[in-house]
From TrEMBL:
Pfam family membership, one: PTS_EIIB
Active site residues of this protein: C30 (phosphocysteine intermediate)
Organism listed in the record: [Eubacterium] hominis
GO CC annotations on file: plasma membrane
Intracellular or extracellular location(s): Cell membrane
Lineage: Bacteria, Bacillati, Bacillota, Erysipelotrichia, Erysipelotrichales
Molecular function GO labels: kinase activity; protein-N(PI)-phosphohistidine-sugar phosphotransferase activity; protein-phosphocysteine-trehalose phosphotransferase system transporter activity
Family matches, as InterPro entries: Glu_permease_IIB, PTrfase_EIIB_Cys, PTS_EIIC, PTS_EIIC_1, PTS_IIB_1, PTS_Sugar-Specific_Components
Keywords (A to Z) from UniProt: Cell membrane, Kinase, Membrane, Phosphotransferase system, Sugar transport, Transferase, Transmembrane, Transmembrane helix, Transport
Record's protein name: PTS transporter subunit EIIC
Annotated membrane topology: Multi-pass membrane protein
PTS EIIB type-1 domain location: 8-90
TM stretches of this protein: 113-137, 149-170, 177-197, 209-231, 243-268, 288-314, 326-346, 358-377, 384-407, 427-451
Domain of life: Bacteria
GO biological process: phosphoenolpyruvate-dependent sugar phosphotransferase system; trehalose transport
Length: 455
């Protein structure tokens, strides 16, 4: 059994460098970064934070002070929370009383609500792809118990997304997360879903309930949770504390659940459809141009730490439309950076630098690009340009082919199962593999030519 790494010292140094626990409002993590919400983000010294052993870089974007750690960040954050005195069950505060831009507030909210479920969502997407392969080659049938059990594991989070997101949103909005999860459960309650979809119209106090389904939806529960938080805060001001435990949730549920079915859900479903149609309309106006731009410059958004703000749009495309051409292209940018790592590793003579290149390639193929970005692409901007060219060329080709991504999946090698059409492998699957090799090969060749072996 591998010995568990102790990150206590790293956590102490990071917490101290960002201004101490007194300066920390909250901290979350994504795939590779600690994302701090600080009272004063002018206190940390970027050079001091970067100098800490185990820190790969720093970004201060989107209202968050982001400390780049690596794929083991999920272990590091436990010690950071312990050192900073933040419990796992503490609310994820996103409003510290400071004036902030609307985008930054939106970014913090989305990160807090969605990031906790990214891991299992990606796992489900990979599992769906594997099951499709097994069905295609005849190893399983869709009516077999094995398939149905594993498909339930793969699809459960998306189907019950209102419950999972409701719980996270309750923490973010500073209200009871079990109440907001219950609101999410009411949106997918089986007998109610069946009733509103029946031939006889269902009403609430004489008001018609729109026939709709909220499984696999994101935005209705986000707004419903925010409304619930306002109702809870208002109820606590007027309800005596000794009976708040029972009466406040009663009030919140009795108001928010009907309101969600009557107004919030239908309105947010419309917003969701408009959002997806608008984004895809822009992309479809010129798939070739869109593929080139997204394929070339998506990793710049990763570099700036702003990519998480696009996650709800990408998820929304998958859950409402069943497929997403934009995310298909984004997956190629990882292969381009893997190629950059290989080209760099083959060009340099120093053994340690070569090891950095090969390890960066392995990291990219596993879906994590930050090591390559910060150790190779940024120090040698020409190598970054090689990735832009490789990603842009391959992205344009894939978009022109009309390829789509069918489930939320990982990146690198783990993106491939998500490109499998549930109806059977088609151009999305074969085209992605071909374009990934193009991105990898073009970027590797250019990186080999452009890399400076002496840097």
């Amino acid at each position: 059994m591998a010995k568990k790494q102790d990150y206590t010292q790293l956590a102490k140094e990071v917490v101290e460098a960002v201004g101490g626990k007194e300066n920390i409002i909250s901290v979350t993590n994504c795939m590779t970064r600690l994302r701090f919400v600080l009272k004063d983000d002018n206190i940390p010294s970027e050079e001091q934070v970067k100098a800490i052993k185990g820190v790969k870089g720093v970004m201060n974007k989107g209202g968050q002070y982001q400390v780049i750690i690596g794929t083991h960040v999920c272990e590091v954050i436990k010690d950071v929370k312990m050192v900073a005195g933040l419990g796992d069950e503490a609310p994820v505060k996103t409003d510290d009383g400071k004036k902030d831009t609307l985008f930054n507030r939106f970014f913090k909210t989305i990160s807090g609500c969605i990031m906790p479920m990214i891991g299992p969502m990606i796992a489900g997407g990979i599992l769906k792809g594997i099951l499709t392969i097994f069905v295609t080659v005849g190893m399983l049938t869709k009516d077999s118990g094995t398939y149905q059990l594993l498909y339930a594991a793969a699809d459960a989070l998306l189907y019950f997304m209102p419950i999972v997101v409701g719980f996270s949103a309750g923490k973010v909005f500073g209200c009871n997360p079990y109440v907001t999860a219950t609101i999410g459960a009411a949106l997918v309650y089986p007998s109610l879903v069946t009733a509103v979809s029946g031939e006889t119209a269902l009403t609430f106090l004489g008001l018609p309930i729109t026939a709709a389904t909220y499984s696999n939806t994101l935005f209705p529960i986000l707004l419903a949770s925010y409304v619930a938080s306002l109702i809870e805060k208002g109820a606590k001001r007027i309800i005596p504390q000794m009976i708040q435990l029972m009466i406040v949730p009663l009030i919140v549920l009795a108001i928010t659940v009907p309101l969600s079915w009557l107004a919030i859900g239908p309105v947010m479903n419309m917003v969701s459809e408009v959002l997806s149609s608008t984004v895809l309309g822009i992309f479809n106006f010129s798939p070739l141009l869109g593929g080139i731009l997204f394929g070339a410059f998506w990793q710049l958004m990763v570099l700036l730490g702003l990519h998480a703000a696009f996650v709800p749009v990408l998820i929304n495309n998958i859950v409402t439309l069943g497929a997403d051409p934009i995310n298909a292209v984004l997956g190629l940018t990882v292969w381009a950076l893997a190629g950059v790592s290989l080209g760099y590793a083959l060009k340099v003579k120093d053994a340690e630098k070569r090891a950095v290149g090969f390890s960066g390639m392995a990291s990219c193929l596993c879906g994590v690009t930050e090591p390559t970005i910060y150790t190779i692409a940024l120090p040698q901007i020409k190598c970054f340009a090689a990735a832009w060219i490789g990603g842009g060329i391959s992205g344009g080709i894939l978009a022109a082919l009309g390829a789509k991504m069918y489930s939320m999946g990982g990146d690198g090698l783990f993106r491939i199962p998500s490109m499998i059409n549930p109806a059977g492998m088609d151009i999305s699957f074969y085209g992605f593999i071909a374009c990934a090799l193009v991105a990898f090969g073009v970027a590797a060749a250019l990186s080999y030519i452009l890399a400076d072996p002496n840097k």
